[in-house]
Amino acid sequence: MASKLLRAVVLGPPGSGKGTVCERIARSFGLQHLSSGQFLRESLGGGGAAQGLSQGGQDCFTAASLMTSTQTSTLSPICFPRTLGQAKALDGICELDLVISLNIPFETLKDRLSARWVHPASGRVYNMDFNPPHVQGVDDLTGEPLVQREEDRPEAVAARLRKYKDAAKPVMELYKSRGILHSFSGTETNKIWPYVYSLLSSRIPPVLPAEEH
């Protein structure tokens, strides 16, 4: 029934905390969280395209576009679209109720991404500054080695952010013209979250209070 209550998209540059916000929305409002990367990793069973997703390559954009034609049930919330083409493809499936945009300063994003390491098989993400693994260099659950993706290396971060900005601008303009874009700015997810929670609470009843995270 969640699909009848709310269809929401969460947008934001790499490292902006989209995954964290989506997980909190799902828990707080009893909605299903569909992440394009997680869905495709599970569906493809760790094959070549799934590896492309874990590396954040172009496969991620292609696969996310494909998802708009394969996922037609609950869409609340989703961590895409990333391009205007994906936004228009999503239009063919459903009419969005709202779009949440996370605006994080460039320097904050650069620091977050440069400190990020991942477990390739699961997609679990660690940040060496504020969410480190229990044992340095290995995944908490499997004990397997963590890797730093090429695009998370300091020299690649600026290019990633510019690419996102260029691709996202027309998407933002589209949703703004429809009156469904809600932007939230800040440097910490914990400070942005209460405002996101308040917005959603005005649309659907929460099942958990904002502070239970």
Task: Chart the SSEs and their pairings.
Elements: H1 2-5, E1 8-11, H2 18-29, H3 36-44, H4 48-54, H5 58-70, H6 84-91, E2 98-103, H7 106-114, E3 116-119, E4 124-127, H8 154-177, E5 181-185, H9 189-201
Parallel strand pairs: 1-2, 2-5
Antiparallel strand pairs: 3-4
What is the gist of this entry?
The protein has about 210 residues and is mainly α. It has nine helices and five strands. The chain has a three-stranded parallel sheet with strand order 1-2-5. It has a two-stranded antiparallel sheet with strand order 3-4.
CATH class: Alpha Beta
In order across it, which strands form the biggest sheet? 1-2-5
- Integer-rounded radius of gyration: 17 Å
Helix content: 40-55%
The count of β-strands is 5
CATH fold topology: Rossmann fold
- Uncertain segments of ≥5 residues (pLDDT<50)? 43-76
Residue fraction in strands: 5-15%
The main β sheet shows up as: 3 strands, parallel
Ends apart, CA distance between termini: 24 Å
Q: Structural class of the secondary structure composition? A: mainly alpha
Compressed to H and E, one letter per element, the order equals HEHHHHHEHEEHEH
Number of helices: 9
* CATH architecture type: 3-Layer(aba) Sandwich
Number of domains: 1
Basic shape? globular
The whole-number mean of residue pLDDT values reads 77
**CATH homologous superfamily descriptor:** P-loop containing nucleotide triphosphate hydrolases
